[in-house]
Amino acid sequence: MAERILNGSEVVLQALADQGVEVVFGYPGGAVLPLYDEIFKQNRIRHVLVRHEQAAVHAAEGYARSTGKVGVVLVTSGPGATNAVTGLTDALMDSIPVVCLTGQVPTHLIGNDAFQEADTTGITRPCTKHNYLVKDPAKLARTMHEAFHVASSGRPGPVVIDLPKDILVGKAPYLEPSQVQHRTYNPVVKGDRGQIEQALEMLASAKKPILYCGGGVINSGEQACKLLAEFTRTTGIPITLTLMGLGAYPASDKQHLGMLGMHGTYEANMAMHDCDVMFAVGARFDDRVTGNLDFFAPGSQKVQIDIDPSSINKNVPVDIGIVGDIGHVLEDMIKIWKAKQYKLDAAALDGWWKEIEGWREKHCLSYKQPKDVIKPQHVIRRVHALTRDRKTYITTDVGQHQMWAAQHFGFEHPYEWMTSGGLGTMGYGMPAALGVQVAHPDATVVCFTGDASIMMNIQECATMTQYRLPIKTVILNNRYMGMVRQWQQLLHGSRYSESYSETLPDFVKLSEAFGFTGMKCENPADLDDAIAKMLEIDGPVILDVAVDDKENCYPMIPSGKPHNEMLLGQETNGNEAIDSDEGMVLV
Amino acid sequence: MKETEISKHTISVLVDNEAGVLARVIGLFSGRGYNIESLTVAEVDAHTHESRITVVTSGTPMVIEQIKAQLSRLVPVHKVNDLTLSGPSVERELALIKVIATGEKRVESLRIADIFKARAVDATNSSFVYEIIGSPEKIDAFIKLMEPLGLSEISRTGVAAISRGTLTM
C-alpha cells in the first residue's frame, strides 16, 4: 500500500477519526494552533472548549467513564500541559482511559527555556500510564494509535502525547490502526484456569463468604457487570462495592450490602471483618476500604482478581491472585462453578445471612429530617426519588456530599456514577458532568457538589452555557469544607481552622451572570418542588440548597481503626470526639 | 522467609532503549519509596534497540514482588528477571580506584593490588589508578584495604549480572 503523506496535524486528526473519536475537550494555545486550524477545516470531530485545562481532562474522564470509550484532551504547551496534570493524576488513580495531546515548542527549541515550554513528558511521567514525545514525523501515526491501545487496554489509564509544533506542521506518513502493533505491551486477559478452580473450591468450602468488588468490574465493561450479577445470584453470597464500583451490581438487590470502607455501611464492613473467604474483584485494597491493615478481615482467606499484577499482594497479601480481565475470569468462574456443581453449605450460608440481617437492623444510614432544616442526606434521597423514571447520570465533587451521594443514591447500572475516588479531586464534578452530558445529550445529568468544591472549577459554568448543556448542579451548601470541618471536630478539638466558607457568592446571581437559571432552597417543605422545577428546566441549573451545617457523615471508620470499630453517628449528638493520636497522623 | 525480613535482590530488566526509559525506572523507585543500591544500564542489542538494566535493591518479599510487578507494568519493559530467585548467577562490578601515596604505602598498595588481581591502569611517581573487577564484596574489601594507603577517589560501575548455566532471560 502506498504511504499517504499528510501534514502532522492531518495525521493527528485522521488518527483520532480512525480511533472512533467523536469529541475532543480542549483549549487552544500557540503550540497547538496548527491542530486547531485542522479542527476548523473539518467536521468529523467535535471540539468542546472548556475554560481551564484541568476541566478538559475531567470532562474527558466523565465522557470515558459514562461511555466506556477513551476520552480525548487537547491542550497547549507549558501552562496548558501543567494545568492538565491534576486531571491526569486523577485519571491514573481511578484507571480512566484518557488520551491527552499536549502541544510542545518546536523540537529545535526543546531544552532552551522557550516561551511556554515545559518538560511535559518529564512532569507527566509519574501521573500517566505512559507518555510520548514525538520527535520523528515518521512515528507520529504509530504513536497516536499506540496511545489509544495503551490507554484503553489492560488496566486503563491516561496517556500523554507531546507534539512539538514543527511535527504538527511538517509532512508525515499516515498508517492505519491495523498497521500498528506494539512489540511488547500485551496485557493478559484470560485468567489461569487452575487458579480459578482453586479459588472456587475455596469459595465452595466457605461458611462466611463475601464478594468485594471495585471499579475494575466497571472498567471491564457492562458484560462483566452482568456476569458479576449472575455469579452473585448463582452462589447466593453477599456482595459489597467500593466507591468506584458503585453501579457494578444493582444497589436495590437484597444481596447487596452497600458500599464498604471508611463511610461504608455497618453491614458491609462487619461482613468484611468477619468473613472467612473474600473474593476481591477489580478492587485494590485501598486504605479507605481496609481501615487498619493489622485488623483487616483477620480470619479470612483471600482471592484477588485483577488485570494489573501489581495490584495483587500490594497492600494485603492474598492466598490466590488471579491476573486477568474481570469479564473473562467471571465467565470462566461461572462455567466451572456450574460444571463442577459446586454448592455452598446452605445451613452455614443461611446463618451468615442471619448475622448480616442483624447488622442491617442498625439502619446505619438512617437520619431524621426535621421541619426547620434540610438534612443533606435528604437532598440526595429526594433527587434519587424524583429522577427514578429518567436515565440519570451522577457526578460529584469531593467531601461529605460525595459520601452522602455514594451512600444514599442507589445506583442500579454501571457507567452512571462519576466520582473522583483515588485522588479525591475537588473541582471534578462540574467538568466531569460536561463530559457526561456531551456523551449523553438526552439524559439527566446531576452534579452533586459542595459550596467549597464548586468554587474549584466554577469557570466551567461558561462551557455549560456555550454548549447548552442542561446539567443540574445541586450544591449541598453548609458553608463549610464539610469533611475538613468533620475531621477537625473529631480529631482536632473542634478547632475549625480555615474551613469556614466566609464569602460565598450568591449562586443564583452567579448562575444568571453566566446565562442560566439559579435557584435557592432553604426550607425542607420546598425541597421537592425545587428539585422538580430544576429537572423541568430545559437548560443548566444550579440549585443551591442550604443544609444542616452541623451534619457529619456517618457511619465512619476513623483512620487507623479496624472495620468493627465503626462510629455509627446515631448515638452521637454533635459533640463527639475521637481519642486517637494515630488518627491524627493518618490521612 | 519471614514477611518482614529485608533481603537484597538483583533484578535484570530488558527495556526498549528509548528516550526516558531510565527516568521511568528510576522515577518508579523514588516515587514508590523503593531502594536502589546499584543500577547499571547499557544497550545490549543494537538491532532491536534493547537495553538491559541491572538493579540491586532490597526489601521484604512483598516489596520485592511489588517492585517486579511495577517494573513489568511499564510499557517499554519487555522482561523482568529476579536473578536472586531464579537460580545461581554471576555478579560483577568494575571499579577504578585512585591511590595517592609515596614510599612504603605506595609499594604496599601495589602488593595488595596484586593479591586482588587489580591492574594498575595509570601510574605517576605519587599515584596509581587501579582497575579491579569482581563481586561488589571483593571491591569493598579492596577499598577498605586501600583506605590507609592513600585512597583518594573511587569510581564504580555498579553491578552487571547474568544467570549461570543455560538459563536465559
From TrEMBL, chain B:
UniProt keyword Membrane, yes or no: no
Family matches, as InterPro entries: Acetalactate_synth_ssu, Acetolactate_synth/TF_NikR_C, Acetolactate_synth_ssu_C, ACT-like_dom_sf, ACT_dom, AHAS_ACT, AHAS_small-like_ACT
Residues annotated as domain ACT: 10-85
SUPFAM superfamilies recorded: ACT-like
Pathway this chain belongs to: Amino-acid biosynthesis; L-valine biosynthesis; L-valine from pyruvate: step 1/4; Amino-acid biosynthesis; L-isoleucine biosynthesis; L-isoleucine from 2-oxobutanoate: step 1/4
EC number(s) per entry: 2.2.1.6
Catalytic activity: 2 pyruvate + H(+) = (2S)-2-acetolactate + CO2
Protein family membership: Belongs to the acetolactate synthase small subunit family.
PANTHER family the UniProt entry points to: ACETOLACTATE SYNTHASE SMALL SUBUNIT, ACETOLACTATE SYNTHASE SMALL SUBUNIT 1, CHLOROPLASTIC
Described purpose of this protein according to its UniProt entry: Catalyzes the conversion of 2 pyruvate molecules into acetolactate in the first common step of the biosynthetic pathway of the branched-amino acids such as leucine, isoleucine, and valine.
Description of how the protein assembles with itself and partners: Dimer of large and small chains.
Name of this protein: Acetolactate synthase small subunit
Source organism of the structure: Thalassospira lohafexi
